Amino acid sequence: MMQIPTISTPRLTLRAPEAGDFPDFAAFYASDRAKFVGGPATEEQSWRMLATELGHWPLRGYGRWAVEETATGKLAGIIGLWNPNGWPEPELGWDLMNGFEGKGYATEAALAAREYAYGTLGWTTTISLVAPANDGSRAVAKRMGATFEGMFEHERHGTLEIWRHPSSDDLTDGGMEAYA
């Protein structure tokens, strides 16, 4: 099993997903908040989604982290790097658990994940896929400096917007403060 790195931000800890995350994961996927990412889903389907998140790491060498609110230890989201079969290219994605929206956590964790992708993995660019009705995710992409690039048709999720993040060179030249 590969070692999944832990990343700390001022308020969050990005760590490996684990079985103890399942109750929060299942609650999220059972809720209407998951409508843009494959939910609502049953507990059995949610378990498979958690296993998929964890299994993505050894298959691709990267994945999405379970994001804890450091002060409380509560699971705030699942955020990171994602490229399952059928995706147009590697993506930076974010899902926040119920009750953690509106605090800037998605942006904070996604910036850390993008820094890992560019700095550690050597990526030069990435995208985020956003459902057309998902105003919250679109706002996160914009806060991170991503720009609308076009549309993508996914066999299960339907039509998705492609948001292109600034390249690693653009961030090095202009600094992240321009996008935060």
UniProtKB/TrEMBL annotation:
InterPro entries: Acyl_CoA_acyltransferase, GNAT_dom, N-acetyltransferase. Keywords: Transferase. Residues 12-166 form the N-acetyltransferase domain. Pfam families: Acetyltransf_3 (PF13302). The keyword Protein transport does not apply. Signal peptide: none annotated. Gene3D superfamilies: 3.40.630.30. GO terms for molecular function: acyltransferase activity, transferring groups other than amino-acyl groups. The keyword Magnesium does not apply. This is GNAT family N-acetyltransferase. It comes from Parasedimentitalea huanghaiensis. The lineage of its organism: Bacteria, Pseudomonadati, Pseudomonadota, Alphaproteobacteria, Rhodobacterales.
